Amino acid sequence: MLKLQFTSFPTLETERLILRAHTNADAKALFALRSNETVMKYIYRERPKDIFDVQTLITTLNKGFENGDNLVWAIALKNNPSEMIGEIGYYRTDFANHRAEIGYMLNPDYWRKGIISEALIKAIAFGFKNINLHSICADVSPENNASRQILLKHGFEKEAYFKERYYFQGKFLDSEIYSFVNLS
């Protein structure tokens, strides 16, 4: 069975980015990100009420890594590695089937600059090579064309459309699933 067991948190680097563990110093940036209605428009999760909610989330993410449940990186620019500008990671893992769900979000100041593409390429490669995933999926709002396009650009294929899959803030919402299968 698949396991997410590493001796230390795997820091990844790309040409412009560092993907690293979340720290408490990220709380302010993460609060700004997760309370930004533009960023969260298609992410159906409760918004943090205050900085303490985000500090709890950071603790939860880090404990999830320690327990082998998830692997979520803070995205930072190499020229300013202490400032988190987004996050990407494997939030849900189906260990028996070697499959994980990837998700990502980015500060709008950095949209349309290839940041998520760069981080996604690195995270996918790590998932297949170092985690030994067989497939990676993403759960996307059908209205989120930008996310759909980035997934298609990087080899994901539409796998499913679920009618009224989620109940969030008084509405039933549809969902699309995209997947990338490691055929090598």
TrEMBL record:
InterPro entries: Acyl_CoA_acyltransferase, GNAT_dom, N-acetyltransferase. The keyword Transferase applies. The keyword Transferase applies. It comes from the Bacteria. Keywords: Transferase. SUPFAM superfamilies: Acyl-CoA N-acyltransferases (Nat) (SSF55729). One of its GO terms (molecular function) is acyltransferase activity, transferring groups other than amino-acyl groups. Residues 17-174 form the N-acetyltransferase domain. PANTHER family: GNAT FAMILY, PUTATIVE (AFU_ORTHOLOGUE AFUA_3G00765)-RELATED-RELATED (PTHR43792), N-ACETYLTRANSFERASE DOMAIN-CONTAINING PROTEIN (PTHR43792:SF1). This is GNAT family N-acetyltransferase. It comes from Pedobacter cryotolerans. The lineage of its organism: Bacteria, Pseudomonadati, Bacteroidota, Sphingobacteriia, Sphingobacteriales.
